[in-house]
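QUALITY CONTROL LOG
STEP: pairwise intake check
CHECKER ROLE: data steward
CRITERIA: each record must contain a sequence immediately followed by its structure tokens, with no blank fields

ENTRY 1 OF 2
RESULT FIELD BELOW
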Amino acid sequence: MESPWMAAARLMAESLRRRVSLKSLAISMYSRAPRGFKAEVRSVAVGAVRNFMLLDRLLLLAGANIESMSLERLCYARVLAYLLKLRGASLNDPKVGEVARASRLDGRSLKMLGRLEVEDAYAGLEGLDKLSIKYSMPMWILESLVKVGAPRLEPLLRRLQRDPSRWIRVSTHRVTREELVRRLSRRGFKLKADSDLDDVLQVLSFKGGITETPEYRAGLYHVQDKASVLVGHVARSEVGVHVDLTGGPGGKITHLAQLERYGVACDVSMARCSSIRELARRLRVAVDAVLCDSRLPPLRLRGRSIVLVDPPCTNLGRLCYEPEVKAWMTEDMVREFAKLQRSLLRAAAEAAPRGTVVVYSVCTFTRDECERVVEDALSLGLEPVDQRPFIGEAAAPSRKAQRLYPHIHDTAGFYIAKLVKV
């Protein structure tokens, strides 16, 4: 079997080439590998991609011609630089030497790379230029964060370089939060009850796999970020039917069904509809999954409905989970996502009778995907209303929307707006 460091470079290259998550790709590539091997592959691949701009800068300073490298060779070079400069590995280690040979860096570049300090990568730089290299954040993303007024920018960037906090949503229709804590504690979990949401636990540590317990298989909990669970609480209503216009992968609509007994999930993908049904069966909640494109007629909402619009987005709020996204996402892709988001919110507004509540949420930071999408929808008869619980930072429109940030709320980055059709 190849070394985990060689595997990490191949995994990184394939993820960037195909623009798919490291996690999903690792499952398909290394599902049968030993647990320790998979953990090391993930650790090195994630570490290298989190620091890809800083590593590229160090390679350039070492004299490497990275512009002429194939993607695969570049990823071997990045992993090598990561091991030497951020992991403290030595070229005398045979496994490091194997990666060095795959990178095909010449002796002079290897010698220079060994002499460089990490701080040399951003020495002489100031302001956003320095932050961009230091935290390997493309300039356009930094500028987007500045435009939305993200509080304490450098602590946010520092937090995005670390693994996320782990949260689980308790199936409170089947087990109390206290009972689940008792059961999982016996399995080596350390858990903390969240003070904002009564069906959420923070996982401080655990043994084995978080999804490998009998309680998980029995549907007593679901792994879901706290910010995502918050959307369900904001959207819940004891009156009316909850409809998720972009239902996959099913976390939010199954939560609403848990809270209010029933939900409808629409999705354009047959595979995602199947996943929603499977998740609903495991959690034992009532959800009807409907294969359709929610942007198109004959979408009609009759009677009292609560509509969730949680469309695809750039996922920049999930960089703790998927740091590889920042390496391939572009400003053009932001505009494409925003176009899709506006069309889905417009469809909801046009299909909804008066009095319908529409909740819009995205796990990203850009103004184009957040405030501007909602502000455009105000001309369609939607008005912002107060939302509860409100645990984030107030945002437009009318400071009734909320933003959550990883470094402040210990969650994914999220934007949530609650609107009503008038």
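ENTRY 2 OF 2
RESULT FIELD BELOW
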Amino acid sequence: NVEAILGQLLALGLQADILFVDDSSPDGTGELLDQLASAHPNVTVQHRPGKMGIGSAHMHGIAWAYEQGYTQLVTMDCDFTHSPEYIHQFIKLGETADIVVGSRYLQEGSLSTWNAKRRTLTHLGHWATNFFLGVPYDATGGYRLYRLDRVSRYFLNTVQSRGYSFFFESLFILHLNHYRIAEVPTNLPARTYGHSKMRLSDAFNSLSQLVHLFLGKAINPERFEIVEPFHQDEATAKGLIDPQGWNDYWSRNDSKQAHLIYDLIAAFYRRFIIRPSLNKFILGNFEPESVLMHAGCGSGQVDRDIGQKFSIMALDISPVALGMYKKSNRSVKKLIHGSIFDIPLEAESIDGIHNLGVMEHFTEKEIADILGEFHRVLKPHGRIVLFWPPKLGLTVMVLKFVHFILNRVLKKNVQLHPAEITHVVSKKHAAAILNKSGFALKDYSFGIGDLFTHAIVVGEKVEYIKTNPRTAQ
């Protein structure tokens, strides 16, 4: 059918180039496409190594169009489910709209030739995306026009789905970011060539992703903002080592149920439990407008409130995390791609340092090195506020139990986050660790405020005092 669809596209008389994305079709389609590309200078073929998902194919084609500098892109299926006859209408509406969507619901009887099962599933999908995501358009179809000269290419960085749910997730994100969306009424015939490739597992994955987006919109809406990612300096990146795999952790982009659930719970926990507690301790230890550094900033969801009152710099070993932080905190003073073992700041240049869920991932010797670096960059009497999970903290015990179930019982081989090595045992333990690196313990809290998940350790920079261990104690 590629020869027939190409003939109809060429007959439209458009000043356009045509891209086919082929996922190593086993029926000879790839070879035929290469022949067509040789015969037509405006035809390009992109071969991929295997079936990587329909959403992935669309992302590949859209990214390619951006890279080639095109201003408009129409995406469509090649099985004649999407008739080329509507393309002129797409282009016309694209004069004022940013995205044009082919809609199966504006024209009465547009699905009349489909079987009852397919019609029911399609209408159910349309109702669900409208009800749960607030997207009033036909969000599950791939017949679209994108005004690439108006739509930020970084919307692709925000979309996580690689399968069928790419369609409703991408339109959901574009809708949330206030792009203008128009619709063309289309009449979809019964499939002319081939058969539907959607499996039952695809439907379940789409439902799971729909629920994930619905909850994510309520819990962590910043995740869906389209923002230019953090661009790392290659020279800086070469000198950084990430042995714990934090960039892989923040880059995680799969559909494993355990990861989806964990990410939602973590977002809820950061926003509604940890953020209020952090607000309390930062406001209680620093004057407004103080210059603070979030050392190991991660996604930065917890800094949303304090970012309005303090001048915050965010440091992380992961460039992906810094990009996420930028989404959550548009007012960030500076994003720093660096290591907490070697902070690229002048000595005595900042008022305070805070982090959450960082220190436990290191040995006590490494913690001493980290605190030594904190001591160097802090001004005299500067303070650190560390949210440090204790040995008997709620999240420590829950995660141990969850990992046991996932890996020992269900044999899933899932690691939800890098290993935790050093937990705080007591107030005395925290004071001893701080004292070795030139900090005096000013406050220690473990209680209901954050549901017994962290020991909150506040230290103040003092001069190193060389004494024997007994005197120091």
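INTAKE CHECK: passed for both entries
DESCRIPTIVE NOTE, ENTRY 2: The mean pLDDT is 90.
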